């Protein structure tokens, strides 16, 4: 056998050994906790995704996929509070310290998720949702009645079909997209990220969308009932709605600010950017 053939077989052997070691190191673990109404569930995962969905009442079920033996899952239950944490061991990095969580909680549970890289997903919940992540992609959908608080540095944030809740989103540079989001209080604040709202602004809520240098686009149907104020200090402001004018605390300047009411002005809407563009668009469908 030639040296080249021997070398090729040796290389294949090394690859197979490496793959086998990786397969052995990766593990799947399951945990189950009995809880009562309004349970509190906290998950801290430095590397990897966390997905939380509504499941059976009085039960928290967790599937954790550990990508290596360089990470462990610390789990603890005190009464109605469940805490899971990815515990990095010596030598762990973003790959070997990765854990993937799939979690089912009662719909009325209050959850708190934290991850550096994410993504972080919450769906079909009625309790409070608190999510924190540096670069994590955040996705919250089909949730009602609870508070939704999201804080990120660079990760994009998407909320879809979130109703009748207090929504507060803070992001340094991540884009924020709100679709069919309404409630008594909706506040989005970004330093440089874009903000996009697509909904009807509900009935009787307070909405504030603010970005220092990012653009703001708000789309609403013709039947929307809002009292709106929009202002960009150095950027352009556009409006597609016929407004009933109203007095403001600042000097109105064409192209950089507008204010007025639409229909019965049930909800208050404030759009502000220092240098980004603002566009209030009328939905055609």
Structure description:
- There is one protein chain.
- This protein has a domain of 130 residues.
- The strands form 2 sheets. The protein has a 13-stranded mixed β-sheet, with no helix packed on it.
- About 2% of the residues have low confidence.
- The protein is built from 1 helix and 25 strands.
- The chain is mainly beta and 285 residues long.
Rg over C-alpha atoms, rounded to the nearest angstrom: 24 Å
The largest sheet, given as strand count, sense and whether it forms a barrel, is:
13 strands, mixed
Low-confidence spans: 20-24
The percent of residues in helical segments reads under 10%
Tally of alpha and pi helices: 1
Please provide the ordered H/E string of secondary-structure elements: HEEEEEEEEEEEEEEEEEEEEEEEEE
In percent terms, what proportion of residues is strand?
Answer: over 45%
Overall mean pLDDT stands at 90
Shape: elongated
Largest sheet: spatial strand order: 5-6-2-8-10-12-14-16-18-24-20-23-22
Structural class per helix/strand content? mainly beta
Q: Could you give the distance between the termini?
A: 73 Å
Strand segment tally: 25
């Amino acid at each position: 056998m030639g040296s080249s053939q021997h070398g090729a077989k040796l290389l294949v052997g090394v690859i197979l050994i490496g793959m086998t070691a990786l397969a052995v190191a990766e593990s799947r673990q399951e945990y189950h906790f009995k809880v009562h109404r309004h349970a509190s569930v906290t998950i801290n995962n430095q590397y990897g995704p966390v997905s939380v969905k509504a499941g059976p009442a009085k039960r928290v079920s967790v599937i954790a996929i550990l990508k290596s033996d360089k990470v462990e899952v610390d789990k603890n239950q005190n009464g109605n509070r469940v805490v899971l944490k990815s515990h990095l061991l010596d030598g762990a990095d973003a790959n070997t310290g990765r854990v993937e969580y799939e979690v089912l909680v009662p719909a009325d549970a209050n959850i708190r998720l934290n991850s550096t890289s994410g993504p972080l997903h919450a769906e079909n919940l009625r309790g409070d949702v608190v999510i924190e992540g540096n670069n994590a992609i955040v996705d919250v959908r089909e949730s009602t009645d609870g508070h939704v608080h999201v804080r990120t540095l660079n990760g994009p944030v998407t909320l879809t079909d979130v109703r009748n809740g207090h929504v507060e989103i803070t992001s340094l540079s991540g884009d924020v997209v709100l679709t069919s989001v309404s409630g008594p209080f909706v506040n989005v604040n970004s330093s440089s990220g874009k903000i996009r709202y697509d909904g009807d602004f509900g009935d009787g809520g307070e909405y504030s969308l603010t970005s220092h240098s990012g653009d703001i686009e708000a789309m609403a149907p013709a039947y929307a009932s809002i009292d709106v104020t929009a202002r960009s200090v150095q950027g352009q402001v556009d409006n597609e709605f016929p407004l009933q004018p109203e007095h403001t605390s600042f000097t109105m300047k064409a192209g950089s600010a507008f204010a007025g009411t639409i229909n019965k002005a049930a909800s208050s809407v404030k759009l502000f950017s220092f240098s980004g563009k603002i566009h209030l668009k009328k939905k055609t469908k």
